[in-house]
Amino acid sequence: MDTILSIRNIVKVYPNGVVANKGISFDIEKNTIHALVGENGAGKTTLMKILFGIEKPQEGKIIYKGKEVHFKSPLDAIHNGIGMVHQHLMLAPDLTVAENLTLGIEPRKWKVFLDTKKAVDIAKRVSEEFGMEVPLEKRVRDLPIGIRQRVEILKALLRNAELLILDEPTAVLTPQETEVLFKTLFDLKKHGKTIIFISHKLKEVKAIADRVTVIRDGKVIATEDAGSLTEHEIAELMVGREIRFERIPPSPKVGAPLLKVKNIRYRNKENVEVLKGVSFEVRSGEILGVAGVEGNGQTELVEILTGLRKADEGSIVINGEEVIGKTPREIREKGVSHIPEDRMKNGVAENAKIKENLIVDRYYKNPFSKGMFVDWKFITKYSAKLMKDFNVLATSPDALVSSLSGGNIQKVVVARELSMNPSVIIADQPVRGIDVGSEELVHRLLNEARDKGSAIFLVSADLDEVLELSSRIIVIYNGEIVARFDDVEGLTGKDLGPYMLGVKREA
Amino acid sequence: MKIEKFILKYFDMIRTIIAVLIGVMVSVLVIYIISKSPGHSLMYFLTGPFMTRGRIGNLLETATPILFGGLAVSIPFQASQFNVGQEGAIYLGAALGTAFALSFHFPAFMYAVIVLIFAGLIGAGWGYIPGILKAKWKVDELVSSLMMNYVAYFLGLYVINYHFRDKSAGFLVSYELPHPVWLKQFIPGTRIHLGIILAVVFAFLVYYFLYHTKLGYEIRMTGFNLHFAKYGGINTFKVIILSQVIGGFIAGVGGMVEVMGIHHRFNWQMSPGYGWDGVVVAIIGHNHPLLIILASLFLAYLRVGGQVMNLLSDVPSEMVTVIESIIILLITAEAFLSQWKYRITVREAALKEVSDESAT
Ligand SMILES: Nc1ncnc2c1ncn2[C@@H]1O[C@H](COP(=O)(O)OP(=O)(O)OP(=O)(O)O)[C@@H](O)[C@H]1O
Ligand SMILES: [Mg+2]
């Protein structure tokens, strides 16, 4: 077999002194799917950014197709046949999906004018070819993150890269979509392409990778044939210690409903009815899971529940009080916390410090501030403690969020939202991009909150997560609840699938 | 490795310094081309501002209104509100403040303070309008505040010229302000007045406000990410308005300080440009009040150096302005870029890469 890419002794030091890659070396064979795994902050994204010409290493060599290369920019990398789907998406929010897909290769009339119709045709062709449905004429800013992820993947596929880097492409996909993506990746491999695949879902790694490289703390721990390792072995290589997965026991005590949602209706700007009379209840001590393909109204529903969007009709009662028309702060003051689906849009201010991010919902309360003044000394100490409790890997509470790895940014959000003893938790993809060790931590914390009597509303594109955590499950399709499962014992993805895809519904 | 780390750590600062050096080099070149004795001209330009007590005084006087302007700009800028109405707020604050001081009388010990507060309120009101337009109807504050600068100018001019004009003065100026509202000039041989101390005090207050109060925190978070601020429960509607109101207040005070400290009457037939200088120093100082002090001094230094060179050498005043502008342009562009670079590098790169591809 030919080696297409050799990574030799790469060292990367960020300006803040963090050594993200400490002499990384491994080879990638042509025509394989090579998985890269490791804990949050292990240095995966950093290494990929180096390959793609975004970051420069202090030391080391990259040998691509037998020649040493120094990509100065992503442009360089692209010219050399490398494509990348970034962990945090990079689409132009004001352009439509079709425009984004054909950006830079847009068809033109007489070489000058944009041929919008043809662009839509091209976009439509790829979206059909690769089995990923996307609303071609909608602006990207109006789309939920799962759909944006599809667009980003399609964009890379359309450009026909020889070496395709996928940094956590499946974090926000449903199992069905992931399956389709995997079929596509197999196809690409058959056609001689090479793929680097990053994921925290080891099941996926086992399912598609030929080889696996495990990195821990900036160093390569092992590069092996994927077939020769079990999921469990990979996980232990990643964290460097033994790990146990425990089944979560069912809710000990289910109490009164803390969140009552009745007949919520919502029409969006394009006058499409996104929510068509949604009703449900979440009781103290239970986790209500929402299964559904992204883009079926979950985003809007969550934003309505948390006061970020106004419903046209309906009622939401939290802890016995109507909250329709209340501000996000008033709703938070009722004990509601919210882990948002898009951490970069809502969850953090990336150019602010970690400690500034951790207090956005409580800075005005004693002891975080006294009178008009913010008490930074207290906040710094407090933040350091939260970071420790929630396993956030960073140099200090003063570090900027933008200097954290994706999973660690998610942990900052989770730390903030789970640290105020919330009585209602709206968790939208709570473990998106978090590594196996920390995922277990977050799940445990959610369960602890549940056992202490919180009502938890869990939205996730990851069916396994929904099945594993939920006390009850509802399935949402096209703005309606099409199925309710009060007993989740023995329920599998196969049972939910037809409802999620709209082929079946409860009478 | 060590040197590299040092460079990385102070990267921004080093870049600013390099920009200054390039600017100076370009100016040296220009001077060499147009001046008969370039050495002398250059010396006047670079060391002129420090040569006499009077010129040092000039430097500090010049820096004072610029500093007020910069502080006034920095607050809305930190909230990502591109309100550039400070020029109008300064002008109107000074004009109406003058009218107020001439129309009402107060006991001496509080006269000046009341007048300053009045001028500040005028500026605050001027900031409120683009603020509420933005918060309520999403009217772009850049456009509305820009347009309002014209309104402020003609309104101020009208009030002074038609109602408070001192016809005996021979120029278009207002009556002289009553003595109790003069800000004391306390260093003989210069016009350095209490206003400069007030400006520095304001700088520290603004610093403390932005970085240590709840409202300051709200302003900065709103500026970093509006969605995040809303999600966290911050009342961004209030923040958007207040940031512009407070900025306007400082601008109004700054305008009146200038009248009370230097001229003792309103004599601006042209808008003095301190609002625009404020934008420049806010950008150079990365919207940080304490850095804005340094940036204002630097800009004042260029101005005074230019004046000295203009007086004592054969470099014409137009060229002086060109040189000044080149330096400011380079530094501003550098500071501006480094601020935005942060957020957009990667996204930009991803976008550019593809659009470049189509070009080839
Ligand atoms: N721009 C930056 N400035 C400073 N430090 C950074 C920067 N980007 C990443 N780091 C640090 O480098 C380390 C590796 O980060 P990286 O993003 O490569 O991790 P990762 O393996 O992709 O993690 P995740 O699974 O969470 O995405 C982390 O400690 C992170 O805090
Ligand atoms: Mg990453």
Report helical residue fraction of chain B.
Answer: over 70%
Low-confidence stretches of chain A: none
What structural class do the secondary elements of chain B suggest? Answer: mainly alpha
Question: Based on helices, strands and strand pairing, what is the structural class of chain A?
Answer: alpha/beta
Sheet with the most strands of chain B?
Answer: none
User: How many helical stretches of chain A?
Assistant: 17
- Tell me the radius of gyration of chain B: 22 Å
Strand content of chain B: under 5%
- Greatest chain-chain interface? A-B, 46 and 38 residues
Number of distinct helices of chain B:
14
* Distinct ligands, ions and cofactors found in the model: adenosine-5'-triphosphate, magnesium ion
Our measurement of the CA-to-CA distance between the termini of chain A, rounded to an integer number of angstroms, reads: 56 Å
Helix content of chain A: 25-40%
What's the multimeric state? heterodimer
CATH superfamily of the largest domain in chain A: P-loop containing nucleotide triphosphate hydrolases
Can you name the CATH architecture of the domain at 65-315 in chain B? Orthogonal Bundle
CATH topology name of the largest domain in chain A: Rossmann fold
Q: What count of structural domains of chain A?
A: 2
Count every beta strand of chain A, where a strand is a DSSP E run of 2 or more residues. 24
